[in-house]
Amino acid sequence: MSAIGTVGAVGAIGVIGCAAVGGGVGAAGRYAVDEWVTGRWRRDFPLGIVVVNVTGSLVLGLLVGVLVSDRAGSAVYALVGTGVLGGYTTFSTASLDAVRLARSGRIGSALGYAVGTLLATVAAAMLGMWIGGA
């Protein structure tokens, strides 16, 4: 869903601003959730990032499900989808965590983490879209 394509040139700056503000909010949320989970998990495994990515995928799927036929939802999608959830979820950190697990000799954990994260996030997005009516 392209947020800019449906708002015209004049509204594009506002949509970009929504995405930027949302990104900051999402990144702060990711940090808070990751720290909260990590503080309680106390194991050498990146469960906080798994929780972030699965919940973010679920909410993004729900948002897309709700907005799929709503072309007026461009600013909402830019703020929440691209911004908040784009800042909240993190494919790059998940990839780095998998590499760190592998480099520490935990090849099985690295593969399980990488494959498990992919499967869980795709399933969560599908569930969110289904709940949202898409």
From TrEMBL:
The keyword Membrane applies. Its main location: membrane. Signal peptide: none annotated. It catalyses: fluoride(in) = fluoride(out). Na(+) is not transported, but it plays an essential structural role and its presence is essential for fluoride channel function. It is found in: Cell membrane. Keywords: Cell membrane, Ion channel, Ion transport, Membrane, Metal-binding, Sodium, Transmembrane, Transmembrane helix, Transport. The keyword Ion transport applies. InterPro entries: FluC. Na(+) binds at residues 86, 89. It is a multi-pass membrane protein. The chain crosses the membrane at residues 6-33, 45-69, 75-99, 111-131. Belongs to the fluoride channel Fluc/FEX (TC 1.A.43) family. HAMAP family: FluC. Fluoride-specific ion channel. Important for reducing fluoride concentration in the cell, thus reducing its toxicity. This is Fluoride-specific ion channel FluC. It comes from Dietzia aerolata. The lineage of its organism: Bacteria, Bacillati, Actinomycetota, Actinomycetes, Mycobacteriales. The gene is crcB.
